Inverse folding.
DNA sequence: TATGAATGAGTATTCATTCAT
DNA sequence: AATGAATGAATACTCATTCAT
């Protein structure tokens, strides 16, 4: 009975994160004001400050919650032997991770200038470097190193910039993943 | 003799563009205020408005000046037969174009959320789609289409996100270009 | 005790309206800045924006609050038979209405060019036309129609432009009203 | 041959006045910027300053040029005996004067708050008082004094606020004039 | 668990005016 | 007779943040 009003008790923090991420992804971090978030939630700005100390903290909390799978992936990858198979599996899993928190990663991708100045900039960079270090063999040829990094960027671009290549999203994701996996394979052909 | 004061006569418009691009690329568009630009130039904000109607127009003018080579490249590409060689040459030339106006393209890459709302968003998108249409064969396999687009993104990423792969910039650029050219080649292997 | 600080709690919105109307009437809408209003109230400009969305909204809110009596008068007038007596009574009541919100109507009278571009321009015009339609018989002789409208303008002018005819304000108002009532009577002499 | 360009030589001052009055009457004094005037004339703002020392001076010069007929009328009126006939003739002539410089008087009527702060405020007030002193007999009944002033305001209102009474402008002007002349007559009935 | 009221610092933009050329 | 380049001061408005209740 009632529902919304009832269910809203206690989950305000979560609802703030949801709405904020939605708006951040849609319009960017700077162009999204706390007033806007508050209005969409039908609470006052001050209510946001009950749950979060600053605007930035809202973003940080979202990032912390949603980016754990990357941490896990990096941890897993580090524990594996640095083989072709491991690397391809990392790429596969990363593709899943991206798809599982698309709005966050779309936001990260579209707001790099902003993100760089924020706390999450450093955090994200570290996770990204973690991934890279798993995929890239520092002894390898520079071209092959680039191939591995390129696999990563292909995944990202595939998520956020291929909306007009037609084809349904799932088919697109598969195609993108195949290219990425293939890039890793090429980097291991010989050397 | 004297220099600064003397030479400044008449080139204020250009100096505004230079400083603005520098700051936009460094801190992002929204976080760069006209006050900051004016101060760095040692003129008043009002002087900026003598030369440009709005903040956005400063950016537009920079974009128009610096993105002409892309237009030219698209035009050239369209006039060639849609062969492997053409496409690889387009990739090569695009790499040069990016290197030739690196600060602008770094800005575009880092501020996509912002750019999308601005007039240059549409402009840039059109140029990008132009390039894509030259590189991508709509009849080809989806995976091969992705390969071609990925070549483009590899170029971009190579410019703006590989600063820590070590190696000197020129070597890096060559490696990136090789990967991109190779991606195009693979997309043409058979099919 | 203390008073000012104490009493100010909760009535800020009203105080903004009061001070704004005072300044608008004194110096005009355009020449009155929000800084001025804020300073006189010893609050910040931002506080004004907590209570009103724009400068224009301050004016609109004042107008809506103070012009209700005209609406009521028009409604009353419409419900009466269109006789000489009705019309004279409307003129009498209008004189009271004007006297009851003199600063607002002085403002409207003195700032017509400005008001015309604002939201209240349309609102006021509608109320004025409502009054006119009650006073003016569209079948009547043009000269008699003008007499009725002139009665209205005489009232206005009497409020705002006769300060130097000497005599005390109340006597002046009575004289003005008599002229206006008489104009209506003449318009009904025969016809 | 050519024409515009040719004829424009030498009459810039006049053209500034024309355009300025047009815009002042249309949008008000404050809302009309020198940029706007300059743009419409296809000259630079600085050119305006070659011909006039300030924005206000543009208005003053217009007023001085166009309000001379009032001065003349006042002078003429003062030289006549203070009879009913004189007064009615003054009203008739004033109606002509208003019609002859309608944009100026429409401006004065619509921008009273602004005008009051400007140099022309005082000038206009003096001319108006001059007229009033001719029309009003200080010995007369207050009501009759009001009638005379009301005749003046009827003329003004007739010019600027009766556009929707229908009827063609000339018919309207005649009707308005008749009411005004009649008001003067009533003020002289007995007394 | 929130709100109402407010602030301080900032933003882009506009304006009348000046002056060397 | 006019322009190009610039300024100083102002304006309406927005934002993240605070705090007493």
């Amino acid at each position: 009975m009632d529902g919304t009003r009832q269910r809203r008790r206690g989950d305000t923090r979560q609802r703030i994160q949801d709405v904020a991420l939605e708006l951040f992804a849609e319009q960017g971090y700077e162009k999204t004001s706390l007033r806007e978030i508050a209005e969409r939630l039908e609470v006052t700005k001050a209510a946001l400050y009950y749950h979060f100390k600053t605007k930035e903290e809202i973003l940080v909390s979202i990032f912390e919650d949603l980016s754990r799978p990357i941490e896990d992936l990096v941890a897993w990858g580090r524990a594996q032997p640095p083989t072709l198979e491991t690397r391809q599996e990392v790429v596969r899993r990363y593709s899943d991770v991206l798809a599982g928190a698309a709005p966050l990663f779309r936001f990260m991708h579209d707001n790099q200038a902003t993100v760089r100045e924020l706390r999450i900039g450093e955090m994200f960079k570290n996770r990204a470097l973690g991934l890279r270090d798993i995929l890239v063999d520092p002894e390898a040829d520079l071209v092959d190193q680039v191939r591995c990094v390129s696999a990563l960027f292909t995944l990202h671009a595939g998520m956020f910039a291929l909306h007009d290549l037609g084809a349904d999203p799932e088919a697109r994701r598969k195609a993108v993943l195949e290219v990425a996996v293939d890039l890793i394979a090429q980097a291991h052909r010989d050397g």
User: Anything to note?
Assistant: The first helix of chain D runs from residue 4 to 8. Residues 19 and 40 of chain D are 8 Å apart (CA to CA).
